């Protein structure tokens, strides 16, 4: 099969008077379709600078959750993440020695295309205005997720589950591992 470009099938004339005695460039005996629209479009190489690499980028919900959790903990007045049940479960996991504290506890995210919705559950520190802390969490999470992940944040819901009182004991993992006999 022979490639024939559109330029090969057209006569190059400037005026109708030049058509007499001009040889047609496609007179090599190639069979060409009677309708030029049946020809494939000529392939023109695009410049390297405008080349697009095909592929897909998928950001897992857990990545968004971790970024949102870190952005939440940056806000002054946030004592911890997660509700009562989640914090209790984390405390039990740590005491049993089953893994370390999860960075995204109390945060859930739903990613769809390039948009994301985030739900955050926090524990506020006593002495801070709870509504101001919650609004700052909402703003910081939206800004940080948008900037770091390049996604449009459509919703950030903040649930204040508890208030940490001054001097309240925070459950921590034991410094030593379990003793062996």
TrEMBL record:
Coiled-coil annotated residue ranges, if any: none
Where are the residues of the annotated region Disordered? 1-42
The family database entries (Pfam families) matched by this protein are listed as: Asp23
Locations of Acidic residues compositional bias? Answer: 1-15
Family listed: Belongs to the asp23 family.
Q: What is this protein called?
A: Alkaline shock family protein YloU
């Amino acid at each position: 099969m022979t490639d024939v470009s559109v330029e090969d099938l057209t006569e190059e004339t400037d005026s109708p008077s030049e058509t007499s005695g001009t040889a047609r460039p496609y007179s090599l005996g190639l069979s060409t379709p009677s309708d030029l629209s049946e020809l494939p479009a000529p392939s023109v190489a695009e410049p390297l600078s405008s080349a697009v690499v095909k592929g897909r980028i998928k950001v897992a919900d857990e990545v968004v959750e971790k970024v949102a959790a870190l952005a939440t903990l940056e806000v002054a007045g946030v004592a911890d993440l997660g509700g009562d049940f989640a914090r209790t479960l984390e405390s039990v996991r740590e005491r049993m020695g089953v893994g370390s504290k999860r960075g995204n506890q109390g945060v859930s995210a739903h990613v769809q295309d390039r948009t994301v919705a985030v739900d955050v559950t926090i524990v506020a520190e006593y002495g801070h205005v709870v509504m101001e802390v919650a609004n700052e969490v909402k703003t910081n999470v939206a800004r940080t997720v948008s900037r770091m992940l390049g996604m449009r944040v459509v919703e950030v819901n903040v649930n204040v589950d508890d208030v940490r009182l001054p001097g309240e004991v925070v459950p921590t993992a034991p410094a030593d591992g379990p003793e062996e006999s």
